[in-house]
Design brief:
Helix content is about 40%, strand content about 20%. The chain has helices at about 10-15, 20-25, 30-40, 60-65, 80-90, 120-125, 130-140, 155-165, 170-185, 205-210, 235-240, 240-255; strands at about 50-55, 70-75, 95-100, 115-120, 140-155, 185, 200, 215-225, 265-270. The chain has about 280 residues and is α/β, with parallel strands linked by helices. The chain starts with 8 loop residues before the first helix and ends with a strand. Strands 1, 2, 3, 4, 5, 6, 7, 8 and 9 form a nine-stranded mixed sheet that branches.
Length: about 280
């Protein structure tokens, strides 16, 4: 029996070509990984929690959480990711479970999880109704007083990159940026096949509204990279402890500033399900 297509073929093709496994080991990915762990740690306790890592990719965050003693369930729609994640889980003493599936139809019971991480679905669902279904499903499987951490790509992300490296003057790239800034829809131009596959880039206010519409309690919004990545010689500075500490301090004091959120390529929202 032919398996039902869980996600867009464009997205599946992108992840089959790209290496999500090595992305967090190089460039911005190294610092993104450490920063995201810092943000998640704000919402995890020392006691063992039931955590669902939705869009968990190859399992790097699930592995880290399992090693901290949590009961983790990873869900991803890309078979390539699932195979790598299963191999990663098999090596652990406290294994995490691995599920092929997608965010709009969770195979978990009501009131199941203490914490849900949405770490990919909001990137790739271009239709608002699909994002609404994802948030609604996350709320359904969440326990009362449980937390959802939702990660999104900022609507300014491509534009900032384009300004920094001159790509903004290439017509197709600029047209893509204009679409993202006005509608949130991201589709890579044919002459930039290496860019992220079809996606949705959120305005921070809109991200908050999408969660509030589901009667979830807003806790906070965080810049992931903040403004620090705009620093001259950013990568070199992050390898120098003194300079790195300055940049991390800058991130910390500006991470919740609503006026500065749009300088960060990624943002994270934290919400709670009221009892």
């Amino acid at each position: 029996m032919k398996q039902k297509q869980l996600i867009s073929r464009n997205i599946e093709r992108f992840y089959n070509k790209a290496s999500e496994e090595t992305r967090l080991n190089k460039g911005m990915g190294v610092f993104e990984f450490e920063r995201v762990k810092t943000l998640i740690e704000k919402y995890i306790s020392n006691s063992s929690l039931k955590i669902i890592d939705i869009g968990g990719g190859t399992g790097k965050y699930s592995e880290w959480l399992a090693k901290k003693g949590h009961q983790v369930h990873l869900l991803d729609p890309v078979l390539k990711h699932i195979k790598i994640a299963q191999s990663r889980a098999d090596r652990l003493k406290n294994k995490f479970s691995v599920h092929l599936g997608e965010s709009r139809n969770l195979k978990f019971p009501n009131n199941f999880a203490d914490l849900i991480i949405l770490h990919g679905p909001l990137y790739h669902l271009q239709k608002k109704e699909d994002r609404n279904t994802t948030i609604s499903e996350a709320k359904r499987v969440l326990k009362n007083n449980g937390i959802i951490l939702g990660f999104a790509i900022n609507y300014t992300a491509s534009t900032l990159v384009g300004l920094l490296n001159g790509l903004i003057h290439k017509k197709t790239f600029f047209n893509m940026c204009k679409e993202e800034l006005t509608s949130g829809i991201h589709n890579p131009p044919d002459d930039f096949p290496w860019l992220l596959a079809e996606a949705y880039y959120h305005n921070p206010k809109e991200l908050k509204q999408e969660f509030m519409a589901q009667k979830l309690t807003y806790l906070n919004m965080y810049a992931v990279e903040g403004m620090a990545w705009l620093a001259k010689d950013y990568f070199t500075s992050m390898l120098n402890n003194k300079k790195k500490n300055t940049l991390l301090e800058l991130i910390n004091i500006t991470e919740n500033d609503s006026n500065l959120l749009s300088f960060s390529p990624h943002i994270m929202i934290a919400v709670q399900k009221s009892s």
